[in-house]
Amino acid sequence: MCAYGCLLVETLKDQLQNDLSTAMRARDEIKRDTLRMAIAAIRKAEVSGKEKVELSDDAVIGVLQAEVRKRIEAADAYFSAGREDRSAKERAEAEVLSAYLPAALDDDALFALVAEEVAVAQAAGLSGGKAMGSVVKAVRERAGAGTDGGRIAAAVKSALA
Length: 161
Hints:
single chain, mainly alpha, Hypothetical Protein Yqey, Chain: A, domain1, 2 domains, globular
């Protein structure tokens, strides 16, 4: 609340910037470096088109999900190359970024949601591979931005098989 009783709506990008300032004051190097990297990725996404745009919170979540995925893949690569120190750093960065992502559905809830949408698709006359696209789209809308698309697609594929 501001001094005049108005509500301040903070975007995810503003929250990242404020947390960066806090991490700098606390001398938290991992969080500071990770948030700098995330804010740079967001800014890059904002200017990547023909004209600069302000990303919505959903678009920022998409950028953060991509960054988390990159960190996890890098951590796996470092681990397989015998660089456990670098792997641990990448995993710590992924953990910092994951705190800003919405909670993902657990497997049971995801499979229940998929089963409902498969039943709807079958009632509409779609089955097998023809239903895949419509079911994935419907599940994605209901599951929210926190659930990985790969998990959704795998669950739908197994349900339709």
